[in-house]
Amino acid sequence: MYETFLIGLALAISLGPDFLLMTKNTLTSGRKIGYMTLLGNRCSLLVHMTFAIMGLSVILQKSVLLFSVIRILGAIYLIYLGYKTLSMRIKNKGDKKEAPKDEEQITSWQAFRSGLISNLLNPKVSLFF
Fold first, then answer.
1. May I have one GO cellular component term (predicted)?
2. CA distance 66 to 128
3. How many structural domains comprise the chain?
4. Furthest-apart CA pair in the chain: how many Å?
5. Which alpha helices (H) appear in the chain, and where do they start and end?
6. Residue 107 lies in a domain
7. Residue 52's closest CA among 65, 44, 10?
8. Distance in angstroms (rounded) separating the CA atoms of residues 23 and 93
């Protein structure tokens, strides 16, 4: 039981993609956008809890194929987010002193959606439920 506690603690305190996404959105677009990312992230936990109550999380844990599909989709989404971030950086390389332009700012809905999708496609979360 002690080992299980330590493994759970290590997984819970490790910085994952959800934390990094929230940090990036907060630092680049402000506190409100960070909170909207957090709200999307927490709403996806409701989906995970609903699946757990309905017994779907057990099916997900037992099905190697379904778990692999979610893992691959999550990886593709993280690569997409990384590409967007790097392409924005390269585009703004010469504009170090200027504030970010309005078209580069994300909307509240985009922040909510990115937090929701990031957590829904995170296979580590489904293992906890």
1. plasma membrane
2. 16
3. 1
4. 54
5. 2-13, 17-29, 31-54, 56-62, 64-91, 108-120, 123-128
6. yes
7. 44
8. 20
Evaluate whether residue 49 is within a structural domain.
yes
Average pLDDT for the chain: 82
Q: Assess if residue 15 is contained within a domain.
A: no
23 within a domain of the structure (yes/no) = no
SS3 assignment, position 112? helix
Structure-token pair, residue 38: 């957090």
pLDDT in tens, 27-64: 989 999 999 999 999 999 898 888 888 887 677 778 88
Is there a contact between 105 and 12 (Cβ–Cβ < 8 Å)?
Answer: no
pLDDT at res. 95: 59
For residue 47, the enclosing domain spans 31-92+103-129
Q: Which residue has the higher pLDDT, 20 or 12?
A: 20
Q: Do 81 and 21 meet the contact criterion of CB atoms below 8 Å apart?
A: yes
Give the other-Cβ count within 10 Å of 56's Cβ.
15
Q: C-alpha 101: how far from its chain's center?
A: 24
Residues 6+ apart with CB under 8 A from 121: 70, 73, 74, 77
